[in-house]
Structure formats: structure tokens, C-alpha cells
């Protein structure tokens, strides 16, 4: 009697694999599917919205059902950033007053410790916050960290090698409100809409260092940062804000206008998004009333307004993680998704959808591998 041959999982027909992955509603299951073998990894999966993660560790679906745990987080641990599929986590040891930091891939469960960061900012005040963690090219690349502290406004880290810091309270680092990598260069913007480039090299031990700083674009806004300096002189507050500018509405005295800036790389171009929100005085929630997108023309040292759309892509913006992704499936082409209240701005129609959910400015996008 002949035994039936047993086929390997990798030999399943691609048509069948497409049907299987299309029937998986959970993006995490998509990642697990692609981790089975190389054959399954090559199967294209439906384009879906990225995951939203709250600092407490709750995973949420944009425009979908309620939250559930992505992994159990103790009370003294928080998610503080999201970059290239990894979540940056902050653990506080209350008894020893120490802080430790790790990177976790929620799909593969890969956990990476950051002892260089523990040594540098392991003993900080309770007001210390990390605003953004950005990896250049995976775990072995450069990691840029933006904080709210003028003594450590920007931290550049090479895992296993060391860190670089600017001088305390040194400009232009204390004015930076967002950062992004474009190829091998780190760029930053200020509230005055200046674009600054940082050339980073590595010494013989692999420790990063900034060898040149250049203002490549001088923005049109001249009074915003002066107002910030005046506020600090009055209050003695040297904590850097999270890149928001508040102003009273001249025509409506009970309305506050909030301007927020984002910097994001898209298809080899550097984009700045200027978003204007309106909210009642004393309220945290509001709605977007104006969105403008500009491309950095570095050779001409100017910002160029973008009105022709995103060329088959969409932007997902938050203060902690922003990304340009392929459009299609659940993702609307030429759309800008704002994480804090779930609004979606269509660049072609100029229509802003009503706020869907209030995730808050501390929430962050988590992008599936291959979605960008």
C-alpha cells in the first residue's frame, strides 16, 4: 500500500494562501502568517489601516471595535514611542527611582534593551518625557530621540556603541519640534518652520557624532519662537513643549487656535504638514479647520506647497510616530490620517471627515511590516 505524500506548508498554492490571509481580520495575525516561511512571506496581504497603541499598552483599531491588550503592561511601564514596527517602552522603578528603556516588536516579540539610554537618562525628574523615538534603518542603525528636556533635547544612539548629546540648552536643538530621516541625513523643523539638517558620522568605535549643522530652509514665521522665549522668561519653565502653538481667535474670544506641525518622509521627499485646530477655551478636544502640506525644496531653500496629492500614498500622522504608506484597501489615497481624534483630510477634495474617535495626542501608530 502506497503512503500519500505529505506536502510542506510552503508548498500550499498561492491562490489558497491569498484566500487565507484575506480572511484574517487582525493585522497581528497577518504578521504571524507572514512569519511562517519565506513562501508565505511573499504573499501580498490586504492593505489595512495601521494599529493604534495607547501608552498604557492597549491596542485599538481605527474606526473599529474597542480596545484589547497587545501585551500585558505593569502599572509602572508605558509605551512612549513607535518606530519601524518596534514599540519603545519606559519602565520606572519607583523604589530605586530609576528608569529603563527597551524596544519591543509586538509581532515577533523581539525585545531589545537599551543600556546606553538607561545610563544617560535613568535618573531624571518626573517631568522628563520622551516625545519621539525614530530608527533610521532597523535595530543596527541610528536611533534619534527627541525629549522635552532642554539639557537633553536630542539624543542620538547607536545600540551597543554609545550616544551623542548636544550641549545643554544649546540652539537650535532646544527649538526642534519634530524630526525625520531622509536617506542618510537627520532633519528637524522648528515652530518658525526652519528646516535644519544634521550630518551624523561615526567614530572608530561606532559612536555617533554630529559633524555639521545647517539651516537649509528659513521659515516665514518669525514671532512664534520669540513668544516661547518670552513665556519661559516669565515662568522660568525650561521644559520644551510638544510642538504646538496656542493663540486666541481674534474674532471669537472663547476659541483657541492650535497649530501643530509634523515632519515626515514620503517617497524620497521631505514633507511638512501644518495643521490648524480649533477648540473651545478650557477644552482638550477640538476639530481641524485647515491643513497645508509643503515639500522641502532643499536646492532652492524653500517650502513648496503641495496640491497634487500624495501619488498613490497616504500619511498617518501623530506626534510620536508618522509614516507615509501605500494607499489601497482600507487606506484612502491622498488622505492624511490624524491619530488624536480620528479625522481624515483628503488633499484633493479638501474635505475633512468628522472626528471619529478620541485616541489623544499620546497615542501612536504601529505599522505592519511591508505596509510602507
From TrEMBL:
UniProt xrefs under InterPro entries: F-box-like_dom_sf, F-box_dom, KIB1-4_b-propeller
Domain of life: Eukaryota
Domain KIB1-4 beta-propeller, first and last residues per copy: 72-343
Location of the F-box domain: 9-42
Name used for this protein in its record: DUF295 domain-containing protein
Amino acid at each position: 500500500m502506497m503512503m500519500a505524500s505529505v506536502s510542506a506548508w510552503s508548498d500550499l498554492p498561492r491562490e489558497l494562501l491569498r484566500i487565507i490571509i484575506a480572511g484574517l481580520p487582525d493585522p497581528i495575525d497577518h504578521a504571524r502568517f507572514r512569519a511562517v516561511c519565506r513562501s508565505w512571506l511573499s504573499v501580498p496581504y490586504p492593505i489595512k489601516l495601521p494599529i493604534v497603541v495607547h501608552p498604557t499598552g492597549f491596542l485599538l483599531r481605527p474606526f473599529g471595535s474597542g480596545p484589547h491588550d497587545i501585551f500585558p503592561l505593569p502599572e509602572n511601564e508605558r509605551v512612549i514611542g513607535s518606530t519601524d514596527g518596534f514599540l519603545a517602552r519606559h519602565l520606572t522603578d519607583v523604589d530605586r527611582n530609576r528608569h529603563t528603556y527597551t524596544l519591543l516588536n509586538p509581532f515577533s516579540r523581539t525585545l531589545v534593551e537599551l543600556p546606553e539610554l538607561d545610563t544617560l537618562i535613568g535618573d531624571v525628574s518626573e517631568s522628563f518625557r520622551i516625545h519621539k523615538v525614530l530608527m533610521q534603518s532597523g535595530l543596527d542603525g541610528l536611533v534619534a530621540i527627541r525629549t522635552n528636556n532642554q539639557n537633553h533635547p536630542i539624543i542620538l544612539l547607536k545600540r551597543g556603541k554609545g550616544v551623542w548629546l548636544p550641549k545643554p540648552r544649546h540652539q537650535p536643538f532646544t527649538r526642534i519640534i519634530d524630526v525625520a530621516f531622509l536617506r542618510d541625513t537627520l532633519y528637524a523643523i522648528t515652530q518658525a518652520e526652519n528646516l535644519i539638517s544634521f550630518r551624523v558620522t561615526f567614530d572608530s568605535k561606532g559612536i555617533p557624532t554630529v559633524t555639521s549643522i545647517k539651516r537649509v530652509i528659513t521659515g516665514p514665521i518669525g514671532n512664534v519662537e520669540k513668544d516661547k522665549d518670552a513665556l519661559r522668561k516669565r515662568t522660568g519653565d525650561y521644559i520644551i513643549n510638544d510642538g504646538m502653538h496656542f493663540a486666541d481667535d481674534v474674532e471669537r474670544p472663547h476659541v483657541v487656535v492650535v497649530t501643530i506641525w509634523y515632519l515626515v518622509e514620503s517617497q524620497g521627499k521631505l514633507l511638512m504638514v501644518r495643521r490648524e485646530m480649533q477648540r473651545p477655551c478650557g477644552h482638550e478636544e477640538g476639530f481641524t479647520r485647515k491643513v497645508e502640506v509643503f515639500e522641502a525644496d532643499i536646492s532652492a531653500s524653500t517650502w513648496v506647497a503641495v496640491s497634487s496629492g500624495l501619488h498613490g500614498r497616504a500619511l498617518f500622522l501623530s506626534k510620536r510616530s508618522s509614516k507615509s504608506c501605500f494607499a489601497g484597501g482600507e487606506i484612502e489615497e491622498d488622505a492624511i490620517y490624524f491619530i488624536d481624534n480620528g479625522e481624515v483630510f483628503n488633499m484633493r477634495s479638501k474635505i475633512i471627515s468628522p472626528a471619529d474617535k478620541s485616541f489623544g495626542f499620546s497615542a501612536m501608530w504601529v505599522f505592519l511590516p511591508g505596509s510602507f
